[in-house]
From TrEMBL, chain A:
<keyword id="KW-0547">Nucleotide-binding</keyword>
<dbReference type="GO" id="GO:0016887">
    <property type="term" value="F:ATP hydrolysis activity"/>
</dbReference>
<comment type="similarity">
    <text>Belongs to the ABC transporter superfamily. Ycf16 family.</text>
</comment>
<dbReference type="InterPro" id="IPR010230">
    <property type="entry name" value="FeS-cluster_ATPase_SufC"/>
</dbReference>
<dbReference type="InterPro" id="IPR003439">
    <property type="entry name" value="ABC_transporter-like_ATP-bd"/>
</dbReference>
<dbReference type="InterPro" id="IPR027417">
    <property type="entry name" value="P-loop_NTPase"/>
</dbReference>
<feature type="domain" description="ABC transporter">
    <location>
        <begin position="5"/>
        <end position="253"/>
    </location>
</feature>
<dbReference type="InterPro" id="IPR017871">
    <property type="entry name" value="ABC_transporter-like_CS"/>
</dbReference>
<dbReference type="InterPro" id="IPR003593">
    <property type="entry name" value="AAA+_ATPase"/>
</dbReference>
TrEMBL record, chain B:
<dbReference type="InterPro" id="IPR037284">
    <property type="entry name" value="SUF_FeS_clus_asmbl_SufBD_sf"/>
</dbReference>
<dbReference type="InterPro" id="IPR055346">
    <property type="entry name" value="Fe-S_cluster_assembly_SufBD"/>
</dbReference>
<protein>
    <submittedName>
        <fullName>Fe-S cluster assembly protein SufB</fullName>
    </submittedName>
</protein>
<dbReference type="InterPro" id="IPR010231">
    <property type="entry name" value="SUF_FeS_clus_asmbl_SufB"/>
</dbReference>
<feature type="domain" description="SUF system FeS cluster assembly SufBD core">
    <location>
        <begin position="225"/>
        <end position="467"/>
    </location>
</feature>
<dbReference type="GO" id="GO:0016226">
    <property type="term" value="P:iron-sulfur cluster assembly"/>
</dbReference>
<dbReference type="Pfam" id="PF01458">
    <property type="entry name" value="SUFBD_core"/>
</dbReference>
<dbReference type="Pfam" id="PF19295">
    <property type="entry name" value="SufBD_N"/>
</dbReference>
<dbReference type="InterPro" id="IPR045595">
    <property type="entry name" value="SufBD_N"/>
</dbReference>
Amino acid sequence: MTDLLKISGLHASIDADGKPKEILRGVDLVIPPGEVHAIMGPNGCGKSTLSYVLAGREEYDVTSGSVTFMGRDLLDMEPEERAAAGLFLAFQSPVELPGVNNANFLRTAVNAVRRARGEAELDAVGFLKAVRAATKNLSMSDDMLKRSVNVGFSGGEKKRNEVLQMTMLQPTLAILDETDSGLDVDALRIVAEGVKNLRSPKFSALVITHHQRLLDYLGPDRIHVMARGRIVRSGGPELAKQIDAEGYASFLAEAA
Amino acid sequence: MPAITETREQVEKLGQSSYKWGFETDIEMDVAPKGLNEETIRLISARKEEPEWLLEWRLAAYKAWLTMTEPSWAKVVYPPIDYQDAHYYAAPRKKPGPKSLDEVDPELLRTYEKLGIPLHEQALLAGVEVPEGEEARLPVAVDAVFDSVSVATTFRKTLSEAGVIFSPISEAVRDHPDLVRKYLGSVVPAGDNFYAALNSAVFTDGSFVFVPKGVRCPMELSTYFRINARNTGQFERTLIIVEDGASVSYLEGCTAPMRDENQLHAAVVELVAMEDATIKYSTVQNWYPGDENGLGGIYNFVTKRGACRGARSKISWTQVETGSAITWKYPSCILQGEGSVGEFYSVAVTNNHQQADTGTKMIHIGRNTRSTIIAKTISAGKSDSTYRGLVRMLPKASNARNFTQCDSLLIGDQCGAHTVPYIENRNMSARIEHEATTSKISEDQMFYCRQRGLSQEDAVGLIVNGFCKDVLKELPMEFAVEAQKLLQISLEGSVG
Ligand SMILES: Nc1ncnc2c1ncn2[C@@H]1O[C@H](COP(=O)(O)OP(=O)(O)O)[C@@H](O)[C@H]1O
Ligand SMILES: [Mg+2]
């Protein structure tokens, strides 16, 4: 059986004041189709960096290792090609686009990936129907569609907007980078529902989180613990409970 | 179809060379010998069969010009212009003058077709050529100026039934001499500045609009300027007079072939608004900007001024400036009538080696006059763009108000954007507000858009159109879409 995502020995660094600073130091990770995996790990261990490298952010230098996504060399693709291929990243800090109407942005994005996937573009009516249904599920007001992308959104609204985009773009693999951070219980449940609604044999998720509560909703297939730029332990859902109870100390010792 | 999608397709079709208006029309021309002197001016005047007073006016302007020097305060750099090394008159050889469309040289009709300018009234009226999914366009009356002469003006009959005069200015000189004589140079005097004096001496054609008392002009008017001939300057002159309680919306567009040499375009536009009159003047300026190394392109040195003479009159300038190697242009309002209103909405885009120094002047003379300035400056490549604006409150301008908002957007780190506001307030009760911002399209924004599947061009297009939104919405609907496309095309190759 073919893996959806296979990361092998991935090393990546960033230019920090003219010197390369290594952040990812040999990441190995496999996600089969239809599974939800979680990455947990202390602040600064490289979780966001991993998600950026997978999405194709150019500031990071991949120095060695490989990533295949649906059998293709992911590292060889432009960010927009990765998106078209079905990779979605819900940003830890969603970016503001002043003056860019949220609905227009969403429709442009949806039609860009549909075109690239050889699907018919959505016309104004079709799009409106789809987006109305999605916003309703996420308890979002229509007003948010009329505003500029993420401008003046509260933390919770930004995260919900990410989930809205994910729903509309129909990814094969969604990476959610701390999408649950800073959400109240109700918002957390809504976001979790948004992900759960997508669960199917054709949808996988890599969920970066610090909280047991989101995982309780999602029921992940596997948990990976990241420390100092590596996956240091992988296991079943019980691993998350252990972290919740004991913290990361023992894993950090392993990584040292 | 959203504009952005259209734009993207457009850009893809264009491939590398993005200036699609750069072709040349092969047509027999009547060209004056090179050089600027009394002889040339007499020749132009004779070709146009002008009355004596106008020839005198031209010659006086020429004398004034001889004593003047080119302005050097603008933040633009270019080699000295040899005014003797250009032609000042070039016209398709067929005799100019009023004629029906069937008499226009088919080669010219094809040219305008290629440019997407509708000169066929019937097709427009019947709305037959509307492709599926597109809205039927409202008819727009067009005056087509090719090099030095107007070659066709559409919908004149419909307009004249409404009492509106829309004709080439050379014809207006003949048919409405009193009106022309009364208003020509009344807003921009012949000796106003170096380029205005030059224009007054050698102007060849342009549009004349007169909207009488109480008439709302029944359709959009537009003039489409095309430079075609080599080594030729274009000096058009537009005069728009709107009487009490009347209104008009006017749009000008312009393109030129791609050439290695620079060509001079020095126009003068004069607007006169009487009591309760409204003039909306929109420009989509798309002269050839030169190539990516800065070779060729139009020098666009233009004087545009509107006089709000009557109480509660209103003049609104909207400009989208994407073309020209150099733009030097400050559409202004003289707010004389009590409670009169001036507006200036501008998007100026420069890419590659383009330079723009543009802005406005709002001169508040009357009480309770108001002005609004929204200027959006976008610089990319190695280009340089300056907003230069003057707000002047004269002693009698009690309770006058101005609001100015200047925003600059930089793409890349080799371009420049500058804001130079001049404020003079001589009335204690007048209020002036000025806001300015400078921003860059950030890596974060680009990456975010691309992660959502947008190409770099699409991403820049979306962000730029978002940045310009407040100005684009001031354009007449059908032109707003054109303008959005143009913005994206002019910024092609500015990222990645
Ligand atoms: N652009 C950058 N410049 C310098 N250091 C960076 C940059 N991005 C990330 N880092 C560093 O890399 C490490 C990992 O960061 P990050 O991937 O954001 O961690 P996490 O998401 O696990 O909290 C941190 O030490 C962080 O400071
Ligand atoms: Mg992080």
